[in-house]
Write a structure and sequence with these properties.
51% of the residues lie in helices and 15% in strands. It has five helices and four strands; from the N terminus they run ααααββαββ. Strands 1-2-4-3 form a four-stranded antiparallel beta sheet. Pfam families: TRAPP (PF04051). InterPro entries: NO_sig/Golgi_transp_ligand-bd (IPR024096), TRAPP_component (IPR007194), TRAPPC6/Trs33 (IPR037992).
Length: 184
């Protein structure tokens, strides 16, 4: 891992969270298989109960809770952000700096509720830079940050869908599709 002293604790914590979530996911899948092998017919309810608790969902949920709290704390002393674009600029500058120690490298929009944040050296996948074998595994390491962005936007009364694309590590594009305002 090539890290600065301040990001190393976060990188280690995040890596352990991903490993823990994947282990829990594997254990739940084994439990589901044992339950089905014991003669219980596969019912939709049982399948649905196990399907909603995979590692990606868990990591995104943790990210959402952290993002919501971070969004509230970081925006506490900021004047009211009136437009979507102001909110997204706030996420790219203030929130990103507080969470990841740097600002987003680029923000693009189609002015119709779709934003793309480019981070050319994203902290959670930076240790895998140069090794294309980790490209498939990167989604596990991006679930938490996706949830973090969704949670921060929720704290600012915005519902959004957040996804990522990775063409080459450590570059990450966060795609944010605004779904509308929420009422607090």
């Amino acid at each position: 891992m090539t890290s600065t002293g301040t990001s190393l604790p976060f990188e280690l914590l995040h890596a352990e969270m991903v490993l823990y979530a994947e282990e829990i996911g594997r254990q739940r899948e084994e439990d589901r298989k044992k339950l089905l092998e014991s003669g219980l017919e596969e019912e939709k309810l049982v399948t649905r109960a196990f399907a909603h608790h995979n590692s990606m969902t868990y990591l995104e949920g943790v990210g959402w809770r952290v993002g919501y709290v971070m969004g509230e704390k970081v925006s506490r002393d900021v004047p009211r952000l009136a437009t979507e674009l102001e909110l997204m600029k706030f996420i790219c500058k203030e929130l990103w700096n507080n969470c990841f120690g740097k600002q987003v490298d680029n923000l693009r929009t189609n002015h119709q509720g779709v934003y793309v944040m480019h981070d050319n050296h994203f902290i959670t996948v930076a240790p895998f830079a140069g090794d294309s074998g980790y490209l498939d595994k990167s989604s596990s390491f991006l679930a938490f940050p996706c949830g973090l962005v969704r949670g921060a936007l929720a704290a600012l009364s915005i519902n959004a869908i957040v996804t990522t694309t990775v063409d080459s590590l450590p570059q990450v594009k966060f795609h944010i599709q605004i779904q509308g305002k929420t009422s607090k």
